[in-house]
Amino acid sequence: MTDLDSYKQQLREFYSSRTTCDHEKGILHPLEANILLESS
After folding, report:
1. Element (H, E) at 30
2. Which residues touch 29 (CB under 8 Å, ≥6 apart)?
3. Which is nearest to 33 in space by CA: 14, 3, 6, 2?
4. Which of 2, 8, 11, 39 is deepest in the core (most CB within 10 A)?
């Protein structure tokens, strides 16, 4: 696993473990994180 792969995995875990308040209407952090990770 490269450093970039490790970093991407850490980001996925961070955004996947967010509290439910982060998933309220209008909060897009997980969606934005996935778009960012998939585009790199």
Report:
1. helix 29-39
2. 15, 18, 22
3. 14
4. 8
User: What single-letter DSSP state applies at residue 23?
Assistant: G
Q: Can you list the positions of beta strands (E) in the chain?
A: none
Q: What pLDDT does 35 receive?
A: 81
pLDDT tens readout for residues 1-40: 689 899 988 888 887 776 655 555 666 677 777 888 887 6
Distance from C-alpha of 12 to C-alpha of 38, rounded to nearest angstrom: 11
State residue 38 phi and psi, 5-degree precision: -75, -25
Q: CB of 8 within 8 A of CB of 35? A: no
